[in-house]
């Protein structure tokens, strides 16, 4: 609470200083604060850790670039010592590609299409201790016929991991 009060008090002063600098240089100033519905990465990580959340669902209507937020959160929570898995449900693999440097790994579509088992679709992130289930390589139409299995899959994952981060994409 004290931090919020200090932040609220300092915010107008910082904004005024930025506006004065902008006026002197002739530049426009855009505030770097989250808008409605946005969450800062460090605050999201802190909240997930302190509340002991089992799942974090990300919907990124802005597109593939916004999927980076879920990757950053998953990595930060993993770096804090929790067992974390990111489940990439984007059509393009936007969340898992940067974690695996490829989109050619078996993943959730393979699991849903009964072409693979859990051990085949869970991969280590190349840049953190986080694990990832990518989109996969199976036919998405065939995989979606078994979408009713997703709750069972999620239950299994939340049993095995401290946190399951789900990136849904747009």
| Structure class | alpha/beta
What is the terminal-to-terminal distance?
Answer: 34 Å
Q: How would you state the average pLDDT, rounded?
A: 84
The CATH H-level superfamily of the largest domain is P-loop containing nucleotide triphosphate hydrolases
Largest sheet: 5 strands, mixed
State the domain count: 2
Enumerate the spans where pLDDT stays under 50 for 5 or more consecutive residues.
1-25, 27-36
Number of strands: 5
- Sketch the topology as an H/E string, one letter per element: HHEHEHHHEEHHE
Strands of the widest sheet, in order across it, are 1-5-2-4-3
Oligomer type: single chain
Q: Which percent range fits the helix content?
A: 40-55%
Shape designation: globular
CATH arch. level architecture of the largest domain: 3-Layer(aba) Sandwich
Q: Quickly count the helices.
A: 8
Structure commentary:
This protein has 170 residues and is of the alpha/beta class. It folds into 2 domains: 1-33; 34-167, Rossmann fold (3-Layer(aba) Sandwich), CATH 3.40.50. It contains 8 helices and 5 strands; from the N terminus they run ααβαβαααββααβ. It has helices spanning 2-25, 41-51, 68-79, 97-100, 108-112, 118-121, 140-144, 150-160; strands spanning 55-58, 84-88, 123-124, 131-133, 163-167. It has a 5-stranded mixed β-sheet with strand order 1-5-2-4-3, with helices on both faces. A hairpin with a 6-residue loop joins strand 3 (123-124) and strand 4 (131-133). Helix 2 packs across helix 3. The chain is globular and about 40 Å long. The protein starts with a helix and ends with a strand. The model is unreliable at 1-25 and 27-36 (pLDDT under 50).
